Amino acid sequence: MRVAEIMNREVKTCSVNEMAGAAAKIMWENDCGCVPVVNREGKLAGIITDRDICMAAYTQGLALSLIRVDSAMAQPVISCAAEDDVATAEELMRQNQVHRLPVVNADGKPVGILSLSDIIREAEAEKAKTEKPEIAAEAIVDTLGAISAPRPHAGAKVVFGPDEGEMEFVPGPPKKRGRWRR
After folding, report:
1. Nearest to 52 by CA among 79, 80, 24
2. What is the pLDDT of residues 77-86, one digit of tens each?
3. Whole-prediction pTM value?
């Protein structure tokens, strides 16, 4: 089975120059957990997830309106082609511990996105139709297990905030401006 058969073709993107709040808005409005990030030519430059946005806000200590997408996105981005076999896409997910893969055309422009959920839904549909599905349940379990394995950076100490002599932004109450302080 090819990726094109089960991928989501209604992919929304954002620019490397946009702010994290814009990416979060796309996720909210489209009920998705990631947004492919494109450069000026419309080619895939990275991917940003809801987790990337949260961790950027935490580690940078800034509001989403002050965090550029390119400072929070994952890169290099792992992607696949619409013509790729779903098993190949699953292997990419396992090796790179990702739940979603942007699907790009020959020019490197996003044409869709494939998620582990898409694969699972297709496996369920196949199970109802045939005794010998193309997508094996064991492969899905292996993929989910590999994706869920602890990452080497988990638990690493994060230091953020202003260093000696730097300024820090202190947000004000709602509808009021914040201020800068040393």
Report:
1. 24
2. 999 999 999 9
3. 0.77
